[in-house]
């Protein structure tokens, strides 16, 4: 927020207005004559021949990542001190383990394939998809675009998901998105860019930010597991809505990603105790 204008400038303007409403008063306002400096021909010549100053290139600021142990330690210490209930949970469970991401394009392609599918079926289709490409390092935009929708359907990818994969690949091949730009974009801009891809909605972007890019301050307000975890941790009568999630979990900033991971862990622990597996089907974007 810009500071308000100084009172002295406001007073000066109002005073001049009052004086100028009365011509006799206005004529009494003293004005100092301005001195006009004449430029010599040498100065003009020097200015014309002066070499331009080199422009300073500012390197993009890489957003923070939870990949490093010191950053994770900072997150855990902050959460312990800011939320006593979460501190107990942190003491009883190890910190989240985040796997490295070799390629944002590969991670996004995988997230599309896994949408709305049980883990076993999704893994089977993904394995066939990797075989079709040759290997994971060959999962590239032009490679995916070379496969017709019918070819993708033969390995179990639905027609709708095939169109999602092609749209993602097209945005990468045309430069709208790239692995490099994704790694350097801030969360807000990246959210806007990725949700412009067909089949990628808020939930998929949140999962990508947390588990692929390891961004520290992401709160997936639409995730059923995180919402249930918050309900259980704070003893709420009803499942919190997105706005309530923002308010309740505000104390976790700037490490809401880690807090969210502990909500999943809380629900997994409860499911293990009840002998039930956690379902995430209602949390995902897109469709079969």
What is the strand and helix layout of this fold?
Layout: H1 7-21, H2 23-26, H3 41-49, H4 69-82, H5 84-92, H6 104-114, H7 119-133, H8 141-145, H9 149-154, H10 159-173, H11 179-184, H12 187-194, H13 202-211, H14 224-234, H15 242-248, H16 256-274
Helix pairs in contact: 4-5, 6-10, 12-13, 14-16
Describe the protein in words.
By secondary structure, the protein is mostly helical. Among the domains are: 69-97 and 218-278, Endonuclease Iii, domain 2 (Orthogonal Bundle); 104-211, Orthogonal Bundle (Endonuclease III, domain 1), CATH 1.10.340.30. The protein contains 16 helices and no strands. Mean pLDDT is 83; it is low at 1-36, 38-52 and 277-283. Keywords: DNA damage, DNA repair.
Mean pLDDT: 83
SS content category: mainly alpha
Radius of gyration: 29 Å
Number of strands: 0
Shape call: globular
Uncertain spans: 1-36, 38-52, 277-283
Features:
single chain; 288 residues; mainly alpha; Endonuclease III, domain 1; disordered N terminus
In brief:
With 288 residues, the protein is an all-alpha fold. Helices cover 57% and strands 0% of the residues.
């Amino acid at each position: 927020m810009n500071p308000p204008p100084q009172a002295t400038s406001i007073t000066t303007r109002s005073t001049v207005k009052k004086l100028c409403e009365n011509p006799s008063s206005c004529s009494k306002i003293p004005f100092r004559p301005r001195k006009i400096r004449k430029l010599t021909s040498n100065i003009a010549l020097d200015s014309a021949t002066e070499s331009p100053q080199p422009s300073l290139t500012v390197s993009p600021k890489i957003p923070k990542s939870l990949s490093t142990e010191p950053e994770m330690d900072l997150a855990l210490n902050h959460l312990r001190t800011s939320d006593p209930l979460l501190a107990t949970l942190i003491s009883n469970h190890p910190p989240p383990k985040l796997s490295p991401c070799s390629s944002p394009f590969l991670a996004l392609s995988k997230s599309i394939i896994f949408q709305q599918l049980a883990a076993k079926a999704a893994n089977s289709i993904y394995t066939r998809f990797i075989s079709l490409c040759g290997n994971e390092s060959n999962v590239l935009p032009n490679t995916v675009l070379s496969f017709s929708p019918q070819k993708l359907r033969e390995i179990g990818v639905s027609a709708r998901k095939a169109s999602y994969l092609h749209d993602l690949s097209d945005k990468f091949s045309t430069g709208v998105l790239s692995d490099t730009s994704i790694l350097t974009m801030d969360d807000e801009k990246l959210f806007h860019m990725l949700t412009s891809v067909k089949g990628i909605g808020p939930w998929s972007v949140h999962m990508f930010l947390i588990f692929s890019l390891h961004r520290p301050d992401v709160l997936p307000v639409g995730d059923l597991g995180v919402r249930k975890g918050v309900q259980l941790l704070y003893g709420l009568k009803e499942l919190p809505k997105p706005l309530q999630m923002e308010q309740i979990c505000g104390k976790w900033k700037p490490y809401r990603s880690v807090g969210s991971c502990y909500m999943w862990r809380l629900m997994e622990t409860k499911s293990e105790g009840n002998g039930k597996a956690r379902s995430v089907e209602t949390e995902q974007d897109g469709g079969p």
